[in-house]
Amino acid sequence: MSDYGKYSIQIVCHTNGSDAAKVVTLIERPIGEIKSILDLGLRHEEQIELLQKVQDQILNLQSPQICTKITHCPECGTKLTKSGYKKSEFNAVFTDHKVAVQRKRCLNCHWHHTPSIRSEFGTAMHPDLAKLQCEMGSSHTYREAQKILDKKACHPRRVNNHERVLQVIHSVGSHITKTKSMESTSGVIPASELIVQVDGGHLKDKAPESRSFEAMAAVVYRPDSIHRDPKSCRGHLVSKHCAASSLSDNQSYMFQATLIAAKKQGLTERTWLTALCDGASNCWSIVDNLASHCKGITKVLDWFHISMKFKNIAVPELQKENLEKAKWHLWRGRVDRALLRLSQVIESIKDSKQLKKLNQLKFYIENNSDNIVDYRARKKEGLAFTSHLAESTVESLINQRCKGQQHMRWTRDGVHPLLQLRASIASNDWCVNWQEKILGAMTNTA
Q: Is the pLDDT of residue 445 over 50?
């Protein structure tokens, strides 16, 4: 034995009907000399090994309770007798196990029952593992998620295969879609004012004849949910609810999901909405769908998108001042003066590419003139005027996961479950209702 002594980790098992306790030694090792920080405590692999042994012992104690609800033969009513055990697969968060499950048979008609973890609970995967796979797979590619999960477990696991991660996400996301209309919006404190941001993002289509399709995203929050970092002055949302859809259903699901998200944030008929959009008609139509459920709506063309359109136009040095003045007038809500300055720039430009961009900008402003406000005044009053104040909906719900890998191609039905999961995780719901969503998707509730 080492001069420093030794240590052992034991688990004491008690069973009903026996006064004696079974002591199982899981680890027994000498306390070696501490030569570096690597020698302190248990290494990652040792922790997983210990967890494996602890879980095995606990599962051995729990296994007799599995399938005890079936006591009599469903064919003839005779009381069933035990008929040995069958090893059944069970996947915990970091470890895999074989659980001994009791077989039963009828001595009268020879009916037999061979249960498994999957047949009894609908899945052999612990919901905590499914939760981890959902969170990893929603923010990383499925192959990256597989690598991360295997590193956490300290060895490759079949249950963490990228195809299994995809299946879990598709199952949970599809369940969220099916049960969206049944989600509870009761018990929420009514809000006097809410802000809703709606935007879209184009994803590459798997179909060779199609280049891309649009996915929609919305985020709803209370104005007082924006907390600012005093050092950077950047804001982040402490409370929000999100909605997303890639379905080709005339926005039916997006209407429903956005309304539910708004109600979870306190939308009532007395609530005033401020809507921020990039000017696309499909974004405003989602906002208009909320009109009958609130007191009124202030529509604001998102200043961030206006600013980006000006930034993407290069004009000769002589016309830069007029272009900046056009933007300056828009900042103050003076649409007519901004259009006048733009017209002056357009008249002096000969380059066809520059003319095309300038005409598109002019059309954009004319088409959204009713929703251009005095941005300068709103900023002074602390009112919402741009999605950049909090965070970009598209960046957080669509682009970061679905467009980050340029080679990735999607189908509408394939990406929709992923968007539901990302919207749920980004909302306040996930930390409270993840068990309900995962169990509903993965287990037999019958």
A: no
